[in-house]
């Protein structure tokens, strides 16, 4: 291709060209699933950024050159989520049918905001929302919308709660004395972010203390009664089902009863844990979820959908539509009193990708029972790892897993101070990930640094969790023997480097 010359679009649409890119994806998947090679990259963000320090391309390049560069510069150092030793963040190794739907979704490029722009996509989204609401136990007035993820779902839910608590807010704002939103101390940051974004102010987020990493219902009731006596309006209570740090589930029955008694909107952040609705073994953890006014749910977590795939469900769909009290007659059509088929009337977004097709295809292929069985298997593997942690003197289990998230701490011989252990555990996680042998995360619980594992891959077995614990234990022993402390030196692939703590 020469400068100023358009590419041959017909050739780029050819099956042979598509196959080149498809082959790159398949090779990536096959290598990751085999367990060969590193889980993540040993390169620093600065080193990776240097790889792409270049001027804006003017003339372009051949398909061969482009594919070669993608393989060399992008795929080679990407995280391999399908690697069985990848146990890091709550990002899934996607199910194959959902992956293969991605190019079709992109090729059709339907905007699922207006039915006439996405006739079949709108019908599918409406049906999938009904399926999910039925799983919750809600009736015919329930509904919802696909979202980019739990953050958008929670923001939209609280927008609907604001419309219910402050009907004039759309036109007049929230005023000088806005209502408050209550959430647990282990709630996702999306809740306080939404409180600020909705114009309430961060000070209007009231944090309820936890009992065993779950919101304390007794403390919640005590706080609600105190707020009522002071004349403070409550816009919503946000409960968590599957917290980010420990995967804990709040007591939805007790929290829901307290909210119903007082006429308060209950939003459940079930981004991670709502998928237990499909589980035969863990559904009981969501007992009382039908009391919720709204639910955030991320299929791109425990239902193993490719990013992005989130959902917002509401017990009364009309409440969601009221959050967007705007008229756009050039887009949305429907007779007075009838449900508008266009999903745009209940969505924060206008241009909306038909991501629902991934979930629909996976449900058609594997069934609700198949996806529920995956949920159960991930939880079972995590519990087995917890039992192994408890059997090892060098580790301390921090939480008993309620789903697929486990927090633990290397304590060695038990003679080191908490501050020393914080530094060692932080450095240990960094060295382990840089080694390429595995991938885990870390967090703070009770002010102490802990190691955190999230088992997202059905291909991860007890053999891999044992390898992880063996590897961490051995690496920690080397660090301690060599007096490796954060900021001094590190052991990565057998080499010492001064900056990797």
Structure, explained:
The chain is α/β, with parallel strands linked by helices. It has helices spanning 9-12, 15-34, 45-51, 63-74, 96-108, 119-136, 150-165, 169-172, 189-197, 217-230, 252-262, 317-322, 356-391, 418-435, 462-481, and strands spanning 143-147, 180-184, 205-208, 210-211, 214-215, 234-240, 265-269, 294-297, 310-314, 395-397, 405-410, 441-445, 448-454, 490-492, 495-497. It folds into three domains: 9-80; 111-354, Type I PLP-dependent aspartate aminotransferase-like (Major domain) (Aspartate Aminotransferase, domain 2, 3-Layer(aba) Sandwich), CATH 3.40.640.10; 367-497, Aspartate Aminotransferase, domain 1. It has a seven-stranded mixed sheet, with helices on both faces. It has a four-stranded antiparallel sheet with strand order 10-11-13-12. The protein has a two-stranded antiparallel sheet with strand order 4-5. Helix 6 (119-136) runs parallel beside helix 13. The longest helix is centred in the last third of the chain and has 36 residues, at 356-391.
Q: What are the key terms here?
A:
single chain, 501 residues, alpha/beta, Aspartate Aminotransferase, domain 2, Aspartate Aminotransferase, domain 1, 3 domains, 7-stranded mixed β-sheet, 4-stranded antiparallel β-sheet, 15 strands, globular, disordered C terminus
